[in-house]
Design goal:
250 residues, alpha/beta, 5-stranded parallel beta sheet, elongated, binds S-adenosylmethionine
Amino acid sequence: MRGSLVIAGLGPGNDALITPEVQDALDRATDIVGYIPYVARIAARPGLTLHPSDNRVEIDRSRLALDMACNGRQVVVVSSGDPSVFAMASAVFEAVEHGEPDWRDLDIQVLPGITAMLAASAACGAPLGHDFCAINLSDNLKPWDLIEKRLRLAGEADFAMAFYNPRSKSRPEGFAKALKTLQDTCNDARPIIFARNVSRPDQTINIVPLTEATPDMADMRTVVLLGSSRTRIIQRNGTPFVYTPRSVEG
Ligand SMILES: C[S@@+](CC[C@H](N)C(=O)[O-])C[C@H]1O[C@@H](n2cnc3c(N)ncnc32)[C@H](O)[C@@H]1O
């Protein structure tokens, strides 16, 4: 049987947010490859082999998946959220570009998933309703200077922003520096949203003015959304609605 490789997004955590297309690929797979907590979301069944691996081994993981697909297996590489958003799809294509010539002829498909920023946006209204950008705040794969430049320029261009990987135990100071840059550049009290464990039973949404945001409000289970200067808050009982109007007058 001809092998295949699917790179699939499992969504932000709630199984109801796995797309039918991804569920179908998981049901047909012979092998699931991915970071330990994501593979742990897949139920074991006869005929299915799970290949969990540690963080930061994306290229090794990709090569294993490509090798198995070349040998006739139906392989699914899983990411959380969407596989193209700071996740495995790019790693697999990097392995293909620099790897075995046969890998280029494989049947490879990327199946999208619901990324954390869109699930977080939906949980509080529509803060990303106008132009926005997404920035990974980890400096594991790029220099900190570049992150700071992008934060400053995105602030100057008045984008709403989504921040992934905001603050980890090994990078405790990075998010403090990022917040300072944003507070200095934006210089107003626009809303910033700390959305933790979105779509899971322990989801929390904390909305504060940018001027009052502190680094301890985020961790690696949090996606952070910052409004533009035009983002609005509708106060009500419970979590307010936050939205960014669709239009800007010329
Ligand atoms: C390596 S990135 C993977 C992003 C993923 N591919 C996606 O599309 O959501 C991991 C970061 O995504 C964010 N994230 C993923 N799932 C989340 C969730 N359920 N709630 C809040 N943030 C989440 C956090 O910022 C976390 O540090």
